[in-house]
Write a structure and sequence with these properties.
Elements (H helix, E strand, L loop, with lengths): L4 H14 L9 H8 L3 H13 L3 E4 L5 E4 L8 H9 L23 H16 L3 H6 L5
Antiparallel strand pairs: 1-2
Amino acid sequence: MQLTRTTDYALRVALALAARPLGVRMTRDALAAETDVPAPYLRKVLRPLVRAGIVRTRRGVRGGVALGRDASSVTLRDVVMAMEGRPALRPCLHDVLSCKRSPACALRPALLEVERAFLASLALHDLASLSRRPAPA
């Protein structure tokens, strides 16, 4: 399973904001520079995170971007789901009409299990824990 570049950027943004106390805002330019997300692309990254309540934005002189809730309550799964919806290994796993072989497919149960395990694993990692880990050398 491969996450989109936009989701990768969203994970970087969420981790950068999680490294700050709740409510502390960053300017969009500072956030883009710290996360290596192209500044023009940052708006596209932030929109789904704001809709999901993971991130808050505020306009104006004292505005900026901040985490929308406590970092310990936001998991990698939350960010991925906000950006991509439910990621699927194959479309036929959730839409049996997309493949005529789907009802009798021997792979379907195994792939569903893999997908569930992937999402469960993402749910084990919250932003607070990840933001405290030192970066690998």
